[in-house]
Amino acid sequence: xxxxxxxxxxxxxxxxxxxxxxxxxxxxxxxxxxxxxxxxxxxxxxxxxxxxxxxxxxxxxxxxxxxxxxxxxxxxxxxxxxxxxxxxxxxxxxxxxxxxxxxxxxxxxxxxxxxxxxxxxxxxxxxxxxxxxxxxxxxxxxxxxxxxxxxxxxxxxxxxxxxxxxxxxxxxxxxxxxxxxxxxxxxxxxxxxxxxxxxxxxxxxxxxxxxxxxxxxxxxxxxxxxxxxxxxxxxxxxxxxxxxxxxxxxxxxxxxxxxxxxxxxxxxxxxxxxxxxxxxxxxxxxxxxxxxxxxxxxxxxxxxxxxxxxxxxxxxxxxxxxxxxxxxxxxxxxxxxxxxxxxxxxxxxxxxxxxxxxxxxxxxxxxxxxxxxxxxxxxxxxxxxxxxxxxxxxxxxxxxxxxxxxxxxxxxxxxxxx
Length: 418
Known about the structure:
This protein is mainly beta. The protein folds into two domains: 1-18 and 330-418, Sandwich (Immunoglobulin-like); 27-302, Glycosyl hydrolase domain, family 43 (Tachylectin-2, Chain A). The protein contains one helix and 26 strands. It has one helix spanning 7-13; strands spanning 43-47, 50-55, 59-63, 70-71, 103-111, 114-121, 124-130, 138-139, 151-158, 164-170, 176-182, 189-197, 208-215, 218-225, 234-240, 248-254, 260-270, 277-285, 296-302, 347-351, 355-360, 365-370, 376-382, 387-391, 396-404, 407-415. The termini are close together.
């Protein structure tokens, strides 16, 4: 689906027109490495008006512009988990809790006003939840989300129709990429996971680290190949017309050069409302040994060929220029909550191409969806703590009217395709 052609006129008429974006040339460059120290398996996301970076070891950083980063507290305290090592090979070392060396490859997504932290540890998958993207996250289940050994490297993908898919690796080169759909609670399976692609079905050279994204109606399944402790570690991809495939392998997009080696285990970010993409990955420099603790996180631009295939990524030592988020619209899949002056801080509102989601922490109330001619389209009462979802008639611009704690509030929202 596409944004209605009248969007610009409607926004101007409603005084919600986005301010002009400051020239990107005025922004500072990101550092290289992106953040200091050992940082592997980086996952980048945009929540609200800040970028967040999560890495192995459960580190978290945030930035207003991709260039200037602040370290946050560890998002998930492993000591709060009551399961894990007793189910795997670490059981004789540290039963009934996660071992400190076990956690890796976290990925975070927002839905229903909550932030969901999917992670690997001891070769099992877990899920934790928080009210803020930096945490603190708490175990959402008290048990593994996927309890078969060697399920690793999860990432959640929310499609334009609101369906949520969880992708993860299983059994390396002997298994493949598994995926299933999650229920709206984000912690139980609507459709259990199965292998959707492997080295005999749509992929070549698959090892680990699957990452899914969508552009112009096409699904891209990217992943890492070769041993992560060798210079040959690289990123490849396949394309499909459905998130579960079938996939067609396309080739490599990122591999070693004369300066840096072993680039891989990545994530991909789009700036909402723009065909502007970035890839964040870890790599080794030639001055380092290719051992786990010498990996560092880097960011470079991701570009596409006219036919939609991904162009080869050129690694840089400069990184990318920072991004000014002024005027960036709300787009599904970014986790951007809709708040603003006068909007109750205890009410979380988000929008996709198909649905409007609300969660109220403090009080009940009434939510109405109105078109720009004043016609009421949808209305629902809600209670405190309820995760309310309303299906939208289609893409476009709407007014949201909220009656809450004795006051009326309203906001213009954009329902648009990614």
